Amino acid sequence: MESTYRIQGATGEWEVVIGLEVHAQVTSNAKLFSGASTAFGAEPNTQVSLVDAAMPGMLPVPNRECIRQAVRTGMAIEAQINKWSRFDRKNYFYADLPQGYQISQLYHPLVGEGSIEIEVDDATKTIGVERIHVEQDAGKLMHDQHPTRSYVDLNRSGVALMEIVSRPDMRSPAEAGAYLRKLRSILRYVGSCDGNMEEGSMRADVNVSVRKPGDDLGTRTETKNVNSVRFVMHAIEHEANRQVDVIEAGGRIVQETRLYDPDTGTTRSMRSKEDAHDYRYFPDPDLLPLELDDAFLDECRASLPELPGAKRARYLSQGITPYNAGVLTAEVETARWFDALLEAGAAPAQASNWVASELFGALNRLGKGIEESPVSPSQAAELLGLVADGTLSGSLAKQVFEIMLETRGDPGKIVEERGLKQTSDTGAIEQVIAEVMAANEDKVADYRGGKDKLFGFFVGQTMKAMQGKANPQVVNELLKKALG
C-alpha cells in the first residue's frame, strides 16, 4: 500500500518519512537490575534500592522476568530472537541518572528484525521493526516543587524498558497512529506492557523527515517522549510542515532532538542530536552476556496467547463482519469477554452484533469499561439464547437487558418474574387483531383500497395492544391473512 499523504508546499508536493522508537515499560515484579517495586503513583523516592541509587559496590543482576517478557514480545511480532545478546553502558551526565550512565543494548540487542501489519483506509501495510532492546529508565526531575530548587525522584530509576525501533516505513500521521495502536494492542495481549500512555508506561520518540517524492531521505529530527496516539499524529503533522517551510525558505534542517507541546500543538528545539560515539558506548563490565537456551525460548513461545491478527481471522471464519471483528479484537479485555460469551454458547454473528451495538452503547452510557460490565458473558449468552428460541422479541430483549444492567439479575429469572415472555398464541393475537381492525375500519378500507403502507400501522397497534409481547413474525402472518 502506497500512501497518498502529501504536504502541499510552495514548490510542490512533499513526502513525509516517519520512524518510531517506542519505549514500553515491561510488566514485571521488579526493576531490570534490582528487586525494587515498580508500582505507579508511589511517594517519591520510596521505590529505590541501593542498586538504583548507584551506591558504591552495588552490582546489577538481570531480572529474568523482564528478559522473558521482551523475548515474548519479539516472538509476537515474529522477530529474530538473538540467543546471545549483551548490555552496554551509555555514558552521559544528568541529575536523574545516579550512575552517570544508562545500561542499554546498542550493538547486540535481545531481539532483531520483525514486522507489524497495520490497516489504514481498508488497505494493509507491513511496517518493519528493526530491533527490540532492553534498557533501564532514568529518574525524574521535578521543577515545580520549590521556587528556586529542582528535586529528583528516583522511583523510575532502573525500571525495565523495551525500546521497540521501527524502520522508517510510515508515510503519514494516520499510518503512525495505526502502527502505535497495533503495537499497543499486541503488547497488551502478550501482557508484556500495560500500554498505559497516560501513566508513562508507553511513550514514543518520533523521527520525521521530508523529501520530494522519490528523492533520497532528508535530515530527520527526533521529537521525544510523546505520550498519546493523538499527540504523535499531531507532532508528525506539525513537524513535517515546519520542515517544509524551513527548506522552502532556503534554510536547512538540523538533526536535533525536539519536544512536543500538547497545549500549542507545536514542537520546539531541545538539543542537538547526539550520535552513538557521543555516549562512549562500551560493554558493561558488571554484566555477563545474556545466553538463552532452547528450553527458555520454548517456554516463552508456549506462553503466548492468541494474538489480535489470529483472533480476527478466527472471528471472520465464524461469520463475523470485518468491522465487528476489528472492534472486538482492538482491546484485549473486549476479546476476552467476547470469547467467554462464545464459550457460553452464543452464536458468533448474533453475539458480535449485540456486543458492538447494545452492550457497548450501554457501557458508554454508564461510563464503564467492558471489564466492569454489570452483565456477565454467561448472562449475555442466556439473553441471546432467549431471543434465538423465540422466548423474547428484540424489543422485549432490550427491556430485559436494561433490567439486567440495573439489577445484575439473570435474564430467565427476570422474564419469569416480570411476565415479559413473548407470546406466539395465535388465538390471543387474532383476537387483538380483530379488535384493532374494528376500531380502525376506515384504515382497513384504505389498506384494502391499495394503501399498502398502512400495514405498519396495524402491526404497531397490535404490538402496542399486546404490550410488545406478541411474536412479531406471527403478528405479520396473521395480519396479512386478516387484512386480505
Notes on the structure:
This protein is of the alpha+beta class. The protein folds into 3 domains: 7-299, no CATH class; 306-418, no CATH class; 426-483, Arc Repressor Mutant, subunit A, CATH 1.10.10. 39% of the residues lie in helices and 19% in strands. The protein has helices spanning 64-76, 173-190, 229-248, 294-302, 308-317, 322-330, 332-343, 348-366, 377-388, 394-407, 411-418, 426-439, 441-448, 455-465, 472-483; strands at 7-9, 12-25, 84-85, 88-91, 101-104, 114-120, 123-136, 140-142, 151-153, 160-166, 202-211, 221-226, 256-261, 266-272, 282-283, 290-291. The strands form 4 sheets. Strands 1, 2, 6, 7, 10, 11, 12, 13 and 14 form a 9-stranded mixed β-sheet that branches. Helix 1 crosses helix 4, helix 5 (308-317) runs antiparallel to helix 6 (322-330) and helix 6 (322-330) crosses helix 7. The radius of gyration is 30 Å and the shape is elongated.
| Main sheet characteristics | 9 strands, mixed
Report the portion of residues in β strands. Answer: 15-25%
Count of separate structural domains: 3
Average pLDDT confidence is: 92
Radius of gyration from the alpha-carbon trace, in angstroms: 30 Å
Straight-line N-to-C gap: 58 Å
Helical fraction: 25-40%
Residue windows where pLDDT falls under 50 for at least 5 positions: none
Which word captures the global form?
elongated
What is the tally of beta strands?
16
Give the number of helices.
Answer: 15
Give the helix/strand class. Answer: alpha+beta
